[in-house]
Amino acid sequence: MIKRDGLLLVISGPSGAGKGTICKALLEDDRDIKLSVSATTRSPREGEVDGQHYHFVSKDKFKEMIENEEFLEHAQIYDNCYGTPKAKVIENLKNGVDVVLEIEMQGAMQIKKAYPEGIFIFTLPPSLKELKNRIVGRGTETAEEIEKRFSSAFDEINKIKDYDYFVFNNEISNSVKEIKSIITSEKNKVSRYKDNILDKFREEL
Ligand code: 5GP
Predict the structure, then answer these.
(1) Which CATH number is 8-36+97-203 given?
(2) Whose C-alpha lies nearest to ligand 1, atom 14?
(3) The pTM is what?
(4) 124 neighbors 17 (Cβ within 8 angstroms)
(5) Residue 187: pLDDT band by 50, 70, 90 thresholds?
(6) Which residues have C-beta atoms less than 6 Å from ligand 1?
(7) CA distance linking residue 190 with residue 40, whole number of Å
(8) Distances from the Cα of 80 to the Cαs of 8, 32, 40, 143, 188, in angstroms?
């Protein structure tokens, strides 16, 4: 194995496009990839475990984390704040461990500025109709929130221009297969290895 930094995979896309489902399936398929656990000020939903699904923190604690520059990115979505804790991600990347961030689009663009070597993947719903069905089916949003999210869906899809890759979320096993092939190609990018490839052969001279 030739040494390289871990890949930072940023999986984003419109609300309801299924980025969470895709990430979960990807992580089950490849146990070597680590998911970054975000901090949030929203309350846990049934079945969510602190430290596993999110770090559930108070608004004051979140503010303190911003002030201490503990986040790689953070964003406010409606009334709640979400952020990616920096330390763990940086440590994993330095150790060659690949990391996935499953985050909304404002945050993804902050990461792109700070870490352009990241791989930016946009998840697409099969159709707008399907997107609405998913948001309704989730049952976690009020009717007003659903309308708000649905009416901004097209504008959100328009943001695909800022991404490197897209994946449709229709057949989950297919979406995972496509992301894995993106990962394979990215692992074979010469630019990710600095002089490490040459060094490997130089040792034999
Ligand atoms: P939920 O409250 O349904 O778990 O998440 C709402 C949205 O926040 C989802 O689109 C999710 O991808 C996004 N999200 C989760 N964690 C983070 C984070 O650390 N940063 C940003 N920017 N978005 C996040």
Answers:
(1) 3.40.50.300
(2) 103
(3) 0.93
(4) yes
(5) very high
(6) 15, 19, 38, 42, 73, 75, 77, 82-84, 102-104, 106-107
(7) 37
(8) 25, 31, 7, 18, 39
